[in-house]
């Protein structure tokens, strides 16, 4: 038999009997993986005369790119914004648990906190690949404290910051002030800020030059302020419609970015949607999707209470109360994050928007990868990409999760269920 060892000693896995999500559609074809990456079978057969070492029958299920959550505050009793002896332990625990929801990569998110929390937590949450141990960490999303007082939402007012310098007077401190507050940007992938804050333009530009994604949110910015931030490099909107001025026909505010004609050529503005059925009315979800479908990024904005029973929990420095599927700042009616999982958001988005299955899946995979500039490695199943994948049934329930082509989670068989059936 011909050898497949001419290029690599690594074994080759062939995923058969599946509907692959590739090029925005589901197609019936096999997928080949070696060394954690997706292979071009033509090159394998004709150039190497190779073959598969093992086959995995997907039973006719959908094989899609693994989900990427760019806004998740914690879950299962872990709050990323709480000081602990070692923040990486909590992140690792959540990383393991979210595998069952099809998430293969994520950005642990810190809400507005005192500088001491950032200084202690940020150095501990390092970028790392996923595997059996859990989903990969793409870098931290710091949401605040450079946000609007009027649209602080569940963020504690006493820790809000401006870009003013600390040396007296009203001279903007800009990026220096941001660095004082965060302590270090080494492990930061995204920063949410309010673009109307004085000095924000230079900060947006500097962060983008450092390869950090800038998101606009918790803001009372008008459209021209938002457009200016985009021209400086901002590329994301944090949970569209939530914690921003409502849409108005004379000045649509940040929401207007979805159809703005002042977005630089070749650039795209993405926007996060918490499709949990609570944060955004289905009609608003449909309006956003129909206005700018290629920019929609599903986020969970999940908090400590995800995966736990109702009761009292924390989000950073705030106490939250979970009532049914709603998470409120205790004693108020202020919504604060969600308790939805990513696969729930995908299912709700598909149902509420009436979009196609590929569109629903790409909003949780391709679009966040494009937002973070990593779509040549993650978020799609093109040749050469990381084999981070999720296997789903027709109702978009997760059956199995794979990272680098290796199975890291599989749904347990129901009692009395037949093996191999779909």
UniProtKB/TrEMBL annotation:
One of its GO terms (biological process) is N-acetylneuraminate catabolic process. Residues 62-408 form the Amidohydrolase-related domain. Zn(2+) binds at residues 143, 218, 239. The active site is at residue 301. Substrate binds at residues 154, 242-243, 250, 279, 335-337. It catalyses: N-acetyl-D-glucosamine 6-phosphate + H2O = D-glucosamine 6-phosphate + acetate. This is N-acetylglucosamine-6-phosphate deacetylase. It comes from Muraenolepis orangiensis.
């Amino acid at each position: 038999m011909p050898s497949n060892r001419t290029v690599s000693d690594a074994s080759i896995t062939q995923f058969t009997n599946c509907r692959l999500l590739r090029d925005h559609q589901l197609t019936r074809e096999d997928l080949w993986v070696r060394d954690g990456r997706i292979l071009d079978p033509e090159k394998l057969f004709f150039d190497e005369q190779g073959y598969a070492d093992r086959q995995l029958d997907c039973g006719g299920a959908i094989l899609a790119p693994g989900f990427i959550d760019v806004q998740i505050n914690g879950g299962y009793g872990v709050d990323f914004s709480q000081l602990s002896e070692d923040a990486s332990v909590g992140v690792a625990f959540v990383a393991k648990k979210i595998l069952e929801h099809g998430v293969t990569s994520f950005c642990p998110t810190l809400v507005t906190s005192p500088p001491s929390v950032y200084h202690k937590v940020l150095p501990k949450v390092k970028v790392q690949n996923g595997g059996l141990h859990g989903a990969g960490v793409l870098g931290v999303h710091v949401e605040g404290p450079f946000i609007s007082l009027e649209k602080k939402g569940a963020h504690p007012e006493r820790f809000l910051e401006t870009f003013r310098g600390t040396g007296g007077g009203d001279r903007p401190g800009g990026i220096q002030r941001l660095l004082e507050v965060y302590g270090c940007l080494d492990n930061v992938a995204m920063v949410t800020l309010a673009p109307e804050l004085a000095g924000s333009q230079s900060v947006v530009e500097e962060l983008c030059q450092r390869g950090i994604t800038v998101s606009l949110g918790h803001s009372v910015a008008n459209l021209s302020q938002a457009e200016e931030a985009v021209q400086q490099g901002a590329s994301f909107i944090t949970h569209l419609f939530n914690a921003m001025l409502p849409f108005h026909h004379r000045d649509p505010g940040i929401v207007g970015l979805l159809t703005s004609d002042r977005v630089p050529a070749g650039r795209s503005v993405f926007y996060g949607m918490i499709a949990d059925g609570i944060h955004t009315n289905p009609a608003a979800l449909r309006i956003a999707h129909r206005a700018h479908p290629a920019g929609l990024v599903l986020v969970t904005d999940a908090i400590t209470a995800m995966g736990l029973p109702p009761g009292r929990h924390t989000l950073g420095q705030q106490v939250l109360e979970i009532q049914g599927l709603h998470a409120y700042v205790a004693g108020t009616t202020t919504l604060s994050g969600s308790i939805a999982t990513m696969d729930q958001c995908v299912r709700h988005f598909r149902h509420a928007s009436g979009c196609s299955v590929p569109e629903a899946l790409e909003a949780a995979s391709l679009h966040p990868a494009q937002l973070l500039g990593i779509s040549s490695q993650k978020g799609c199943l093109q040749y050469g990409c990381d084999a981070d994948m999720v296997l789903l049934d027709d109702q978009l329930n997760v059956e199995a999760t794979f990272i680098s082509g290796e199975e890291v989670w599989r749904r347990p068989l129901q009692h009395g269920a037949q093996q191999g059936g779909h």
